[in-house]
Structure formats: structure tokens, C-alpha cells
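Saturday, quiet lab. Running sequence design on the C-alpha cells for the scaffold JK sent over.
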């Protein structure tokens, strides 16, 4: 329901801003808004079409994992931790394995692998959902962890900074890691409060300890490297992770004497259908965002916040990166475009350039994720999922500002 109101509000506010501009002699706002509806519709379709190949690949790979029993074994191994966060899921259910692989892919910045695995997890969660048009607690917890955007290796952010000519593209690594940890912890706490889950048990604390150890080890490895070496190392690590996962699944099928090729084809057939089913949801959210952005409403909101901050006598330097923060929950490409625009006009090494980089990577696109993940399984009632996702977003953005002032201010 909350997403419904936000979707309507984007259209209404954008249209009202366009009408006001028309009365003041700006005759370009309304045509720009109209053009954005066609442009964003096309972008949404191309996005889903581009996702088809990746979905087909990974759904085929996952089918091999299902038929070989690898996902079930992985689920049993992880059940002490995941059953605490997802008590509705039966022990050993394949959804636990898919959830783990999705979260792991997101942590390593492997977006192309994370989305297909996440959609597969949603299908498995829907299979045990008693009310098929209403989000279950497990679905909401899963999507909260997704929208909070925990990322250990921000490969894409560092690549964009390098392309923009940053003196040290990796200098956002630590503040971005700290920021995304804050957003994930806040999202997890809020969702746990809604679901009355006790996070203070040995399995969950052990999980946090393992993540902290991995982060510390990774940081220890790259701390003495120069920029080029860090970029090369991260690219090699992510490549190893993706190819290693594919080979692990193929090996598990071969060991079980499966017809691995036929198993892959059977699973891959569903990739196209899933991609097509996502088109209406992508078009809906991206067109609404495009109308609001083209109307100039986003810029007006930025100016209003800047004036309010200055009126309170506070430092308003962070307001320059506000478009990234406002766009991030709505559209990943939109937020990325805002960040690149800041790089062009202010430079990637400016305070605003650093802050925009941290904001771009600290959370994920909440409304886009909710739309495509819930849309893929026909969920219409989102319950408190928007509240959890936005709370994580707000916590991440506040943390991004604080850590950016500390490291770069």
C-alpha cells in the first residue's frame, strides 16, 4: 500500500510542478515530462530484456544445484544461522541456500548474479507462503537484507571513480563499508522488532564475527596496494567467485551422475518468463521516477533542504549530494547518473564527489527491488516491508554524511 501512495505521489507532484512552471512561463517542463515517460518506458524494457540472459544462465545453474542436492546440503549447513532470521522456513529447505547465495553475491558486489538468485529465492519462499498475495515475514526479512545493500567489495563504485580521474579511487572503501554495515544492521534490527526475533544468540553473533573477520582480512590484504593493484585484485576476486560458483554447481551435478546439460536447459527455460513478468513493474516505477525528475521537483526539493539547513546554521556542504540520496531508493541508474553528474561538475575528489560515491554504494534501490521481487511472485500486499527498507535507507544516508565528514570533511 505504501508503494502505491508513493507511486501516485511521484506522478501528482511532478505534474503539479510542471503546471506551476507553465504559469511562470516555463513551457519546456511538461514536454520534458512527456518525453521522460517514453524514454523511461524504453529503458525499463531494455533493462528487463538485458536481464533475460543473466536470468536464464543462473536459473539453469541453480537447477543443477537443486537436482544434485548441493543447495539442500548448503541449506542444512547454514540452517543454524538462517533459521534464526527466517523461523518460518523449514530446516533444510532450498530457499535457505538461495537466500545465502543471494546475500553473498550482494556482499561481493556481484549484482548480475545476485538478482537471478534472489528471484529464485522469492519463488521458493512463495511456495511455502500461506497467503499468496501477501508478503510473508521471511520475504520481508529477505528483502530488507537486500535493500540495505551490504557490500564488502564496492567494485563498481571504485571503477566509476577511476574512470572519472579520481586520485585514489579506493579511498571510499572504508567509509562505504562502515556505512553499508550501519544500514544493514539498522534494517535487520527494525525488521527483527516487527517480527519479534531475538538477534542476541550465538549463531547470529558468530555470523557477525565471521563477516568482521573476512572484512578485516580483506582490508589487511589491500591496505598496502596501489590503486591499480586494488582494482586488479578486486576484479580477479569477483571473477574467481562467479566462475568458482559455476564450476562448483557443475561438479556437484557430475558427481551425482546427472545429465548436467539437460538439467541446465530445464532450469534455464524459466529465465525468459521471469524477465517478461518483471517488465510491468519496472515500467511503473521508472516512469514515475522519470516524470518527477523531469519536472524539476527533485531539484526544487534539494534547494528547499539546502535553505533549511543553512537557516539552522549548519554546514550544508552535504546537500550537493542530496540528489543521489533521493534517487537511490527509486532508481539505481538514476542515482548513478546523479553521481556521475557530480563527478563531472565538482570532481570525484571533492567532498561532494566523495559523499556521492558513499551514498551510491551504501544502500540498494528499495522500491525497484520491492517492485520486481514481489512482482515476480504476484505479491500485492507489502505490509511493513517499505518501512523497513526506507529506515535502512535513511540510516545509511545519515551514516554516509557522518563518515564522509569524518574522512573527507
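Result came back. Writing it out in full:
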Amino acid at each position: 500500500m505504501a508503494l502505491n501512495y508513493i507511486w501516485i505521489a511521484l506522478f501528482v507532484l511532478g505534474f503539479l510542478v510542471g503546471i506551476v512552471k507553465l504559469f511562470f512561463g516555463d513551457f519546456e517542463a511538461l514536454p520534458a515530462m512527456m518525453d521522460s515517460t517514453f524514454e523511461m518506458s524504453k529503458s525499463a524494457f531494455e533493462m528487463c530484456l538485458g536481464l533475460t540472459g543473466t536470468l536464464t544462465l543462473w536459473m539453469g545453474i541453480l537447477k543443477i544445484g537443486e537436482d544434485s542436492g548441493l543447495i539442500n546440503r548448503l541449506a542444512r549447513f547454514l540452517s543454524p544461522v538462517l533459521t534464526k532470521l527466517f523461523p518460518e522456513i523449514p530446516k533444510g529447505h532450498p530457499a535457505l541456500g538461495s537466500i545465502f547465495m543471494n546475500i553473498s553475491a550482494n556482499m561481493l558486489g556481484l549484482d548480475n548474479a545476485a538478482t537471478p538468485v534472489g528471484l529464485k529465492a522469492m519463488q521458493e519462499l512463495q511456495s511455502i507462503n500461506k497467503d499468496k498475495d501477501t508478503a510473508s515475514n521471511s520475504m520481508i526479512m529477505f528483502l530488507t537484507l537486500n535493500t540495505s545493500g551490504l557490500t564488502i567489495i564496492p567494485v563498481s563504485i571504485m571503477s566509476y571513480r577511476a574512470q572519472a580521474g579520481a586520485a585514489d579511487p579506493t579511498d571510499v572503501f572504508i567509509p562505504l563499508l562502515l556505512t553499508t554495515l550501519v544500514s544493514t544492521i539498522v534494517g535487520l534490527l527494525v525488521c527483527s522488532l516487527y517480527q519479534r526475533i531475538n538477534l542476541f544468540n550465538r549463531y547470529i553473533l558468530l555470523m557477525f564475527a565471521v563477516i568482521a573477520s573476512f572484512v578485516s582480512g580483506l582490508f589487511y590484504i589491500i591496505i598496502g596496494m596501489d590503486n591499480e593493484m586494488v582494482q586488479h585484485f578486486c576484479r580477479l576476486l569477483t571473477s574467481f567467485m562467479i566462475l568458482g560458483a559455476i564450476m562448483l554447481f557443475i561438479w556437484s551435478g557430475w558427481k551425482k551422475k546427472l545429465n548436467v546439460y539437460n538439467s541446465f536447459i530445464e532450469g534455464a527455460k524459466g529465465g525468459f518468463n521471469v524477465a517478461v513478468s518483471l517488465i510491468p513493474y519496472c515500467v511503473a516505477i521508472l516512469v514515475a521516477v522519470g516524470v518527477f525528475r523531469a519536472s524539476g521537483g527533485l531539484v526544487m526539493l534539494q534547494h528547499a533542504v539546502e535553505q533549511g539547513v543553512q537557516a539552522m546554521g549548519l554546514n550544508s556542504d552535504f546537500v550537493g549530494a542530496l540528489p543521489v540520496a533521493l534517487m537511490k531508493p527509486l532508481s539505481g541508474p538514476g542515482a548513478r547518473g546523479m553521481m556521475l553528474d557530480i563527478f563531472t561538475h565538482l570532481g570525484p575528489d571533492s567532498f561532494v564527489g566523495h559523499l556521492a560515491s558513499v551514498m551510491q554504494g551504501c544502500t540498494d534501490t528499495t522500491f525497484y527491488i520491492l517492485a520486481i521481487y514481489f512482482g515476480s511472485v504476484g505479491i500485492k500486499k507489502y505490509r511493513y516491508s517499505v518501512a523497513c527498507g526506507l529506515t535502512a535507507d535513511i540510516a545509511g544516508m545519515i551514516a554516509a554524511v557522518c563518515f564522509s565528514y569524518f574522512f573527507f570533511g
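Notes for JK: Residues 20 and 93 are 55 Å apart (CA to CA). Residues 29-68 form the longest helix (40 residues). Ask whether to fix the surface positions before the next round.
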